[in-house]
Amino acid sequence: MPPKKANATNRVTKGGRLGHGPKWTPFEAWNFDRTARETIPGATCKQIDSFYADPRRWNAAGRPQRPRLPTLPKTEAENESACITDRARAALAEPVDALGVKYCYTCFECGRNPDDPACGVQCYDEIHSGGGTTGMKTFFKKWLEIRHTGTADKGYGVFVKTNGRYEIPKGSYLGHYVGEIVPGPSKNNMYLYEPQVGLEWDTDRPIVDAGKMGNWTRFMNSSCDPNVGEAIMQIGKVRVIAFFANKTLKSGDQLCIYYGDDYFTGHGLQCTCDEFEGPHDPTVVGAGLKARERQQQALGSQS
Ligand SMILES: C[S@@+](CC[C@H](N)C(=O)[O-])C[C@H]1O[C@@H](n2cnc3c(N)ncnc32)[C@H](O)[C@@H]1O
């Protein structure tokens, strides 16, 4: 029998699945003039709404496979058995990190501390299903859109819908960064985030890589005066990088975070945000500083 021809195009269909991975749903965006919708070209990136860990990547890195994150435990009973190892459970039960810093993340849904047994995976489900108090899927569809910024360097960005009738108040929870949880150190790309997320084990920090799969937050560009701040927080048992409005967001505003001092120089790039004329290094006097001040204010106002 002749060998089967590998054909990537017919293996992946819209609405189907890529291997055992998440659902294949390419991102769509408005063009710059907002006259046409386009599927983001060249995007191998799939839309997902929770973390995904590919066992093959963990195997390749010689690491034991720990969490099965694509399907979060649905019940507390399941939570106790298959999905979370004893070690990770212990880490979660003891809300102190290796440096002795007390975690003080509170759950979005129930407002409880992560070590409170009453805060469970149902909280995470609520947020994603559009239930509960936040309904993130609905929120994005209603208020935000991905649109081309009109410049090749910045590519696509996230904007408050131009036809929105309301403003998004300062302090609003906007969403959180999801992607593939990969064993660190990961092959560098433009979409890596390196917090402690979800479960922690050994001394390795899992990295959230939104290069191949992620949600709309991966399209947020960087600004030296960001209107979106981030904080590590907790939804049920899952630790997340959550985004908040630093200021009131109005129709047409682009949502921007600050990528940090090292991002642009680290990638051999320059920032071209609207805050400063022409390409610039955010660490030059005033730029990175302003972003940090704004970030501090945002974090301060949450505690
Ligand atoms: C996380 S992605 C953001 C989404 C991206 N614009 C896209 O179309 O996929 C990061 C990349 O966006 C571009 N970018 C984001 N903010 C920028 C800025 N202030 N100046 C220049 N390029 C920026 C850079 O190419 C960067 O590597």
From TrEMBL:
<dbReference type="InterPro" id="IPR046341">
    <property type="entry name" value="SET_dom_sf"/>
</dbReference>
<dbReference type="GO" id="GO:0008168">
    <property type="term" value="F:methyltransferase activity"/>
</dbReference>
<dbReference type="GO" id="GO:0005694">
    <property type="term" value="C:chromosome"/>
</dbReference>
<keyword id="KW-0479">Metal-binding</keyword>
<protein>
    <recommendedName>
        <fullName>SET domain-containing protein</fullName>
    </recommendedName>
</protein>
<feature type="domain" description="SET">
    <location>
        <begin position="142"/>
        <end position="260"/>
    </location>
</feature>
<keyword id="KW-0862">Zinc</keyword>
<feature type="region of interest" description="Disordered">
    <location>
        <begin position="1"/>
        <end position="20"/>
    </location>
</feature>
<dbReference type="Pfam" id="PF00856">
    <property type="entry name" value="SET"/>
</dbReference>
<keyword id="KW-0158">Chromosome</keyword>
<dbReference type="GO" id="GO:0046872">
    <property type="term" value="F:metal ion binding"/>
</dbReference>
<dbReference type="InterPro" id="IPR001214">
    <property type="entry name" value="SET_dom"/>
</dbReference>
<feature type="region of interest" description="Disordered">
    <location>
        <begin position="57"/>
        <end position="78"/>
    </location>
</feature>
<dbReference type="InterPro" id="IPR050973">
    <property type="entry name" value="H3K9_Histone-Lys_N-MTase"/>
</dbReference>
<keyword id="KW-0949">S-adenosyl-L-methionine</keyword>
<keyword id="KW-0808">Transferase</keyword>
<dbReference type="GO" id="GO:0032259">
    <property type="term" value="P:methylation"/>
</dbReference>
<keyword id="KW-0489">Methyltransferase</keyword>
